Amino acid sequence: MTEERAQAGRLWRWVGAAVVVAGVFFTARYLLRGRLPIRAVQAEQQTVVNTVSTNGHVEPVVNYQFYSPISTTVKAVYVHAGELVPAGKVLVVLDDVEARAHLANAESELKAAQAGLFAVTHNGTQQERQAAAAEIATDRLQRDQAQRNLNALTRLVSTGAASPDEVAAARQQLKMTQTALSAAEKSAHSRYSPEEVAQARAALNDAEASLAAARQVEAQTTIRAPIQGTVYSLDAVPTQYVQGGTLLLEMANLKHERVRAYFDEPDLGRLAVGQKVIIRWVGKPSQEWEGHIERMPANVVIYGTRTVGEALVAIDSPDPSLLPDTNVTLTATTATFPNALSVPREALYAENGKYYVYKIVDDSLHRTPVTIGTPTLSEVPILSGLKEGDWVATETTNGQPLQVGMPIKVQQ
Q1: pLDDT > 90: percent of the chain
Q2: What sign for the dihedral angle of Cα 163, 168, 172, 178?
């Protein structure tokens, strides 16, 4: 009897426990019925940084390129790629036989042009001047003789020893000798016209220019370093025949480099001179270089499939290991909002150009208009509409849309 009562007591205790569990289950199910499961975040103060990313090309600020001035042979190369050389060092020597021949010919043409200008500005060559002086002397003698003949005939005509016709002929002869003498004297003092003088001067200028060009070409057959710098590109090979205009080498001071950055057209309005830029190169993925925008784009160009503006970025932390002609990525800081109230971008919604969030108030969603600053890829600065500590919904966990006034259950 006692045993039966004990078993009956245990049975009722199990039944009671089951009733309590069932009550709790159905009560919780009732209370949670219809609640929307969501994820939520809290608006908080933090520094929001706006950036623009793009690609670019490293180049020296001052680049020295050396080309073969003529078609010739490379005689010697005294440098290797990557070598740091002092100013004045001989780098490459070309065969200069042809250049020296052109130089000698130019010098000869210059002397001829100088002689030509001297001749036209001094009434001819020395031989021409001597011939003119001899002609003038002869014409003077002939004039004097004609004058004496006329005088003698004039005396004789008064005594009847000479006829008037002989006197007239003598006068005509004197006039002819005087004309010849005048022409010879005029020719001796102004043999060449102003146009001929100008032509001779132009010929001299051309000869001087040709000589200067020939000297420059001859000098360029020996290539020297204009500065202390690094030869970062070398194409010259000893005994190699090169065409005129062939690029032989490039050098620069690699402590003075910059980046030509290609910013997409929609981002250009956010850029300004002086903005900080971080430069990264895949060749050294663990390293980055600081810089700033030095020059804004002057126009917009087509770059592959993009429309871009080319900005120049100065490198503030020069490093010779950042090689010229390398392709880099850049991140420009366009705006910074210190201690800005912000929420993740996924918490922001827009309709008809106006922004709003779903603010959580008393376990339900309320559509709350907000004004924002320029968003980053992950954060949105909130200028008004929220205060620090407010909770906002980002999404549901069951794929349903967020609904105003809907009871919610925040999921972790």
Answers
A1: 53
A2: positive
Q: What are phi and psi of 302, to 5 degrees?
A: -85, 125
Residue whose C-alpha is closest to residue 313's, from 46, 14, 40, 52? 52
**DSSP run (H or E) holding 301:** strand 300-303
Residue 215 phi, psi dihedral angles, 5° rounding: -65, -40
- Report the alpha-carbon distance of residue 9 to residue 2 in Å, rounded: 11
Query: Tell me: the pLDDT tens digits for 181-208?
Result: 677 667 666 667 788 878 888 998 999 9
Please list the residues that pair with 92 across neighbouring strands. Answer: 77, 223
Determine phi and psi for 245, rounding to 5 degrees.
Answer: 95, 0
Q: Distance between the two ends of the chain, CA-based, in angstroms?
A: 55
For residue 401, the 8-state DSSP code is P
Q: What is the DSSP string of 8-51?
A: HHHHHHHHHHHHHHHHHHHHHHHHHTTPEEEEEEE-EEEEEEEE
Structure tokens at 391: 């909770």
CB atoms within 10 A of CB 106: 20
Q: What pLDDT score does 53 carry? A: 94
On whether the CB atoms of residues 132 and 184 are closer than 8 A, the answer is yes
Q: With the C-alpha atoms ordered 215, 217, 222, 225, is the resulting torsion angle positive or negative?
A: positive
| CA pair distance 409, 412, nearest whole angstrom | 10
For the chain, counts of helices (H) and of strands (E):
5, 22
From 148-162, 280-294, 320-334, the region with the lowest mean pLDDT = 148-162
Instruction: Quote the DSSP letter at residue 238.
Output: T
Tokens 């045993």 locate to: 3
DSSP-derived secondary structure letter, 407: B
Residue 326 has pLDDT above 70, yes or no: yes
Provide the whole-model pTM: 0.60
Give me the percent of the chain exceeding a pLDDT of 70.
86
DSSP state of 195: H
Mark out the alpha helices in 33-157 (DSSP H runs). Answer: 97-121, 126-157
CA distances from 129 to 179, 189, 200, 396 (A): 20, 10, 18, 111
**342 touches 48 (CB < 8 A):** yes
